[in-house]
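Re: the request from the purification team.
They wanted to know what the chain is likely to look like in 3D before they choose a buffer screen. I agreed to run a prediction and write the result into the notebook, where they can find it.
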Amino acid sequence: MSSSSGNYSGSSGHMCTYETCVLRTSLTVDNFGRRFLGCSRYKVGPKCPFFKWLDNPTCMRGNEAAHLVQQKLDLLRSELQLAHERERAATQTAAEATQMAEIAQDRVAKATEREKKFRASSVQA
């Protein structure tokens, strides 16, 4: 059957119908904001070509606004990536500081032990 009749049966046995599909919103520049039905297994299983637009194509103003929204989305994604990188660097720095503190504590404990041994030996002498 074809997608125009509302369902598709692939070689995997997967079948999409209006009842099993998911309502989605396009975020592509050319179709920004348009609603469509698509396979509920999109990006998780065998590819299913079922797809049906539920509304009319985006108007000219919508297409113009889509570019602005896409630019803002790209900016927010880059800011998020930068924040993740800063978080990773801060976490790494904190881990290094913790490790250095543990080393310093170990050195203090060893120095204290050496000092006790030295005092004990100097008292005996």
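For the purification team: Residues 60-124 form the longest helix (65 residues).
Please add any questions underneath this entry.
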